[in-house]
Input
Amino acid sequence: MTRPALMIPAVLAAAVLLAALKETTPSYAVLTGPIGTAGEQSKTVSSRTFSVKVDRVLRAKAIDYEQFGRAVDLQSSGVWVVVSAELQALQKTMPVRAATLVGASGRFYRQSRRAGDAPNNLSAKTVQPGLPTTGVLVFELPEDETENMKLMLSEQYDPQLEDEIGVSLDADKTAPQARLEIRKDGV
Output
């Protein structure tokens, strides 16, 4: 009689323990997600594999650049955000293809394909250890999303168990311009 009476509380305790473990165990996406590093604009932010230093963040209603000898003029109903940065690989030669801006609402904005052929575009470059690489990243987003932006960089979109750097961008330093010219030597 004592044995069945002890068995019921033991089974209940095991069930409660398993339910608690199930609720507190992180999801698979969290366990295999990116290895995040955060920092601020104007400071070098380093992860295990690469580092970034955001120099300037500029906003404009229109951008101009020259591509293959012809002038390109792109207008936007929103605003163009051009980020000037320096990247450096720390261990191996690598691309940093995935650049995303997180806007004020938390929405993600990937680099603009309309301006994908802009000169000195960092996403078209390969970063090598010991050789700092400078360039620009060009985004197009609604103007009300340009406050409290965050730049997310990684080797690929949705990295799993790979480094991802997040840089908080200063809204005070994003003075809007009517027109911005992107040159081969930067902005």
About this structure: Residues 41 and 54 are 5 Å apart (CA to CA). The chain has one domain: 33-181. The two ends are 84 Å apart (CA to CA). The mean pLDDT is 90.
